[in-house]
Amino acid sequence: MRAETRRTERRGPVRRRQIPTLSEPEEFLHALESVSRGVRDPVAKLRFIRTSLSRYQTLDRAVRAVPFASLRRLLYRWLSLEGLHHLLDDTSSLGASPLRVKFATRVSLAFGRAAVVGLGLILGVSAGVAAYRYMRPPAAPLMAAPRRVAATAPVLAAVVDPVSSLVEPTSAASVTSAGVAPAAIWLVEKGPQWELYSNGLRIDTGLTVKGTPRAFRVFDGEGTLDPRVYTAPVGLLFHTSESDVWPLEAAYNENLRGTSQGLLRYVQKNRLYHYVIDRFGRVFRVVAEESKANHAGNSVWANAGRVYLSLNHAFLGVSFETRWEGGKALPITQAQLAAGRNLSDYLRHRYQIAPEMCVTHGLTSVNPKKHLIGHHMDWARGFPFALFGLPDQYQRPAPSVALFGFDYDDDFLKVLDQPWPGVKAAEAELAREAARSRRDVEDVRHERQTAYDRWIEKQQSPDDTDRTTAPAATGGVSGSTANQPAGGRSAANQPAGGRSAVPAAGRAAASTSRPEGLQ
């Protein structure tokens, strides 16, 4: 027992036997033998072996310099196949009988030649690219945005000018007006989920859903309701989404993408807008153009002797992903500005929409129960009409005040220090009417507010029972102001320093409202 223990201790740990690797001559011989098996003629096989051995002595030094054994074996096999090629060429040139070679060997010969040609092409292209890069003059680095010079940057006004509160005006005007504009706008190309138009507009159509078919009727200036039912849109209504807005910086890229996708899902689920323009300037068609979207709610607009009430059906809704914040903050990006101009040009061209029929939600939204303007106030100040090639609708007398005597309250003045100029112009018209009829202004207001109630009742279809609000989204984006009571004011319309009552993780699509019958 002790002797066995001593023998075990002397042996020590068991060593594993290493697997021997082939030396360079053995690698060559192994490849030579593998190729020679494909030659059936013994005389030809002997000749092939002799030729290969003589070529091996010439090329062996170059092959042995390759550090990888697997690559050396491939080279040796290729050299052996090339030797067989020489043998075949010599046989055909001497007029001897064709060399009998197995089919598998012939396939290897063909693949070997093809590999050589392919490798030569790759090396040639690589060398050409390298030479081009070396000889090409150095180019200036591509900047994501032009560097701003502090000495020439204009100072944004605090409140007054509606255009001055827009995006950086240094290059916005040139972006939308410079260059050659197409004589018409047409569809250039269309894919499964996108459309490209001649003015550069690209529309993502992957999220498009259909809704209630558009159908609306129109009043004349005397209150007569046209019996005809219209199905083509007659106007554009611009909104802000009132959703979460992250800084437009690379560090927040995932947050920017995530909030945009959440907003789009919410808008699609509740069919809120026809179009959404995200902060990168991407245009998404969410509700089909031939369908109604729940974007305008109780609203009033008029043009050329025709009066439109509750604009969900009559107007296309275009929403910019941003927070309005009273019109004092930076509302949209330059990418959104350029995309919004292209989109509005396309829609106006397609449906022959008059410039006077392109307006913002804040200028049209009303509270019908209290007869107040500004129920929703997105873009009640600050929309860049001039940069969109549109007349300044802030200067135009407000139809809701001039035609129907609507007023505003203290909550309205908490958001806007004073009404936009069109409200003052409309109030002046009411004052002139009161002076002509020798009545008090409030009596004139009450008379016209009563007329509005009659018009709305006349517009309602007996068969129309769809008076539901858009449901709040769960687990994603939520908090539409469509769910505010008629007498309330949306969270987005709080004073500029206030915060929305909607949780930050789910705030979106605030500027929407319920449909009001056949609109």
Average per-residue pLDDT, rounded, comes to 73
Q: What would the principal axes of the Cα set say about the shape?
A: rod-shaped
Strand order of the largest sheet: 1-2-3-7-6-10-5-11
Distance between the termini: 107 Å
- Name of the CATH superfamily of the largest domain: Peptidoglycan recognition protein-like
Offer a few descriptive terms.
rod-shaped, three-stranded antiparallel beta sheet, 2 domains, Lysozyme-like, disordered C terminus, eight-stranded mixed beta sheet, 519 residues, alpha/beta
Secondary structure blueprint with pairings:
Elements: H1 2-11, H2 24-36, H3 42-64, H4 69-94, H5 103-135, H6 169-177, E1 187-191, E2 194-197, E3 202-204, E4 219-220, E5 235-240, H7 253-270, E6 275-277, E7 283-285, E8 300-303, E9 306-309, E10 315-320, H8 334-351, E11 358-360, H9 361-364, E12 366-367, E13 372-373, H10 399-402, H11 410-415, H12 421-437, H13 441-459
Helix pairs in contact: 2-3, 2-4, 3-4, 6-8, 12-13
Could you characterize the architecture of this molecule?
This protein is an alpha/beta fold. It has 13 helices and 13 strands. Helices cover 39% and strands 9% of the residues. Helix 2 (24-36) crosses helix 4 and helix 3 packs across helix 4. The chain is rod-shaped, with a radius of gyration of 39 Å. The chain starts with a helix and ends in a 60-residue tail after the last helix. Mean pLDDT is 73; it is low at 5-10, 16-22, 139-177 and 462-519.
Brief rundown of the structure:
The chain has 519 residues and is α/β, with parallel strands linked by helices.
